[in-house]
Write a structure and sequence with these properties.
Layout lengths: L3 E9 L4 H10 L5 E4 L1 H10 L16 E8 L4 H18 L10 E6 H4 L10 E3 L3 E5 L11 E5 L11 H13 L5 E5 L5 H8 L4 E6 L2 H13 L6 E5 L10 E7 L2 H7 L3 H4 E13 L3 H10 L3 E8 L2 E7 L4
Parallel strand pairs: 6-7, 8-9, 8-11, 9-10, 11-12
Antiparallel strand pairs: 1-3, 1-4, 2-3, 5-6, 12-14, 13-14
Helix pairs in contact: 1-3, 5-6
Length: about 325
């Protein structure tokens, strides 16, 4: 018998995308889909997808986040919890587009279980990193570093601009033997990238137990349990010691909370890579980084998002 599911969708601005996906995950959603028009348009124009019947989006400022919950006796309570969390998120968004109303549609399992896969195909990031969905075939080139994930399991497919910017920076910064902290790991995609690039040890931390479970599964499926440890924790409280590189792909307000503790947890000469930052809040992040003693090396912006790379001086 086919299982009935409730499709929940909400339209948000770019800054709220990750937080909205996390709200759905915390409510126990069985899958989350991010329909980012900027990403879709860029893939259509680049030829990165060998097949795509998704029309070009005219409105690039609105992202649709969809998730699915089983239709059972817990559904009403879960929807009420999600709606309350979305209202709370909207009230915290400064100078950003508030979350739209939650839309509901009942579907059969076979309607959605595979439909979202049209959005995800093997994708090259930087020079050698390749994101490969678990159901796709891909013949790697000799120098390819292939990261296999199932994008239906948790937010963090590796294709959002914030993640792409981080991965491009990791490709430049990670050296063999490095100790890396991945704060707010989500699906674990940045931890996988750091490990594939040669890091000796990666500590991945997320406050969300669902993210911890999913990241652990992805680490196992890529055979990287000896390099990456995943645990539940609040920012750097989930780690011990110091690192050569700390990466945090979260949102600006959380990065501002994290920054005061970063210098003490970085080795001398170590790097801090922060993304999930909308361009309008970039100045706050760079100012705070300098205020806490970090040297800002570079800022890279793409389609309204930014990554900040800073380092701790040797002396």
């Amino acid at each position: 018998m086919l299982v009935k599911w409730m499709e929940m969708s909400v339209m948000v601005g770019h800054e709220a995308t990750e937080a909205t996906a996390n709200i759905f995950h915390e409510a126990g959603a069985g899958g989350v889909v991010i329909e980012d028009p900027l990403l879709i348009n860029s893939y259509r124009s680049s030829g990165a997808w060998d097949y795509c019947d998704i029309p070009e989006a005219a409105d690039t400022e609105t992202v649709t986040v969809k998730a699915y919950l089983p239709v059972d006796d817990r559904l009403d309570a879960s929807i009420a919890e999600i709606e309350q969390s979305l209202r709370s998120l909207s009230s915290r968004l400064e100078n950003a587009k508030p979350c739209g109303p939650l839309r509901l549609r009942e579907v059969q399992e076979d309607d959605w279980a595979n439909a979202w896969k049209q959005y995800f195909h093997p994708t090259r990031i930087g020079n050698n990193l390749v994101i490969k969905p678990s159901w796709e075939e891909y013949e790697p080139l000799p120098d390819d570093l292939v990261l296999e994930i199932d994008p239906g399991m948790a937010f963090g497919t590796g294709t959002h601009n914030t993640t792409v910017l981080c991965m491009e920076e990791l490709e430049q910064l990670v050296r063999p033997g490095m100790q890396v902290f991945d704060i707010g790991t989500g699906s674990g995609i940045l931890s996988l990238a750091a490990a594939k690039l040669g890091a000796a040890s990666v500590r991945a931390v997320d406050l969300d137990p669902t993210a911890v479970r999913v990241a652990t599964e992805n680490v196992r499926d890529n055979g990287l349990e000896s390099v990456i440890s995943v645990r539940q924790g609040d920012l750097l409280m989930g780690t011990e010691g110091t690192a050569d590189l700390i990466v945090a792909n979260i949102i600006a307000s959380v990065i501002l909370m994290l920054l005061p503790d970063v210098p003490a947890r970085l080795n001398k000469g170590g790097f801090f890579v922060a993304s999930g930052i909308i361009s309008e809040r970039l100045g706050e992040i760079t100012h705070a980084a300098r205020e806490y003693g970090l040297v800002v090396d570079r800022v890279v912006e793409r389609d309204g998002w930014a990554v900040v790379v800073a380092h701790k001086e040797e002396d």
